[in-house]
Amino acid sequence: PAQPAELLPFTATSTTRQLLTFVPLFEEDFIRPLLEQFLALSTRFPDLTLVFANTGPLKEWVLSFATTHGLTARVHILGLVSRAERWSLCQSSTILIAQETQTLVEEDLLVDALQAGIPLVLVPSETKNTLTLPCVQVPTMSQLIESSVPLLENVMTRASLISAGRAFVETQRSWSTHLAALNAVFTELTRV
User: Fold this and answer.
1) 2-14 per-position pLDDT tens digit
2) CA-CA to 90 of 20 to 30 Å: which in 1, 6, 39, 163?
3) How far apart are CA 171 and CA 174, in angstroms?
C-alpha cells in the first residue's frame, strides 16, 4: 500500500538526489551497467540514491554489489509497487532511468512519469520505443553518467525537461485530446 512520502526512508528530499528505475531485476544487460554507473556517480554525488521499484532473480546480486561497494544505505529494492506508489516515487525522484521498449505497460509508465514531473533518461534496448518522448536518450549505457550529471546538477536543465514532458502529456495523452479524437470518430460515424 502507498505510504505518505514523509514515511518513506528512500524518498528524495531537497538534500537528496534519487535515481529511479522500474526495470525488472532480470535484465542483466541493464542492471549490471546501471550499478557500475551508479557507483561512479555516487562518488561525485554523496547524497545520490538508487531505487529499484521491481523484483527479479538478480535481487541478491544487486544487494551483494551494494554491500561489496559500501552502498547498502544508497541502493534500495522495493519490489513491485502499486500505481499510486509508482506515482509517489516518480514525484519524489530526480531522474527515471528506463529502457526503450514498445510494450503498452512501459509506455503507460513513461507517460505517467512525464505527468508526475520526473525527467526521463532512456537507455538502449533490443526493442526501440515507438513514442517520441521528451527525454535524454543515452546512446550506450556507458554514457549514462555523462547524460545524468546535467540533470543532477542543474535545476534549470531538469525543469525544462519536466516542462517538455508535461506539455507532451497535455497535447498527446490528456483526456481532452482523447475526447476530441473520440468526438471526431463519432461525428464521422453519424455522417454515414
Assistant:
1) 444 444 444 444 4
2) 39
3) 6
